[in-house]
Design goal:
Strand order of the largest sheet: 8-7-6-5-4-3-16
Number of strands: 16
Oligomer: single chain
Structural class: alpha/beta
Distance between the termini: 32 Å
Largest sheet: 7 strands, mixed
Length: 389
Amino acid sequence: MPRAIRLRRFSLITGALIVSACLFSSVRTHPPLGHYADSPQFAGGRFRNPLPRPALGFWKTLRLIRDSLWNKPADAVPAVAPPVLALTAQQLAQAPDHSLFRLGHSTLLVKLRGGWWITDPVFAERASPVQWAGPKRFHAPPIALDELPPLRGVILSHDHFDHLDASTVRRLADTAGVFLAPLGVGDRLIAWGVDPAKVRQFDWWQGTTIDGVRFIATPAQHFSGRGLFDGDKTLWASWTILDEPDSDRAPGGASLRLFFSGDTGYFDGFKEIGRRYGPFDVTMLETGAYDANWPFVHMQPEQTVQAHLDLRGRWLLPIHNGTFDLAMHPWTEPFERVAALAAEQGVALTTPRMGERLDLRAPQAMTPWWRDAGEPIAAEAAVQRTVAL
């Protein structure tokens, strides 16, 4: 039997097994629904966007699966591992306040008022319900999970596998101080063994203040679910983070305003968030895993730049790229497109390497690291390109 046919058959079998694993995992981790009834975003047993998400349809979905399995561009995965700056516990211990380290995809490590916060931590080898198949990392995290400093908190945007990694959450359950999550996602954490006293979950425009830093769950346009039958039964959110001066800070201390998008399509909500909480010093906006077939849930680079302008951002940090193969575009395309657009529109862009420190008080432009060579990575067949997250 020709090798190509064997690969295609194996791909179909692998995809079917992953779908089965998704179904199994959704049955085991289904969160309770009764206490969400007061949310304006909740109706008919599911959360929803202000504007309904267009359905792909059966045949279009099949075509997308076919293209994902067999019609990917050759450069959707890098031929060599992207450059990563290894981090040590000592380096992090010496890092000043308002340091940011990008660890991969949408995982950001940020130091605020002496405490470390991490967004959407994913340290697994694959963004998948199983670790023997599914989208595999292009690079190792700059620091091992066990070497992270004690975390003041974990900030979660939604429950997709490339943002909510059960194995990582379970390992952080004892060491992280608090978990901030949208409605329903907190219930998943509790089901996985996180102490309920550590879990705080919020609807849009709700939030909390911890150690003088204000966290607000702000709207996003996306969807949720980890299996076939739990779609939209947990909420998705972006996060506004406000570290503002007060009496316990040094005189003349300036405020720091950050925006973390999670996953989202472009929508009018960016303007409202910008009106309420802007201008933002740094916007951390998704720029990757986009496609013309799903603009409602992932922004094109042009929309990322527009969202940054709507938010009244000063510096743009593109995230949701450079770690996993989750779409049909070349893996470097998000960087190249957003860089060109930012230059055209006079937007200040910062693109730190994985593991490179960014001073949130004084961001700066970085070198185009995605064009650099690294160590060769093992070539993998199309079997790794399976279900969309």
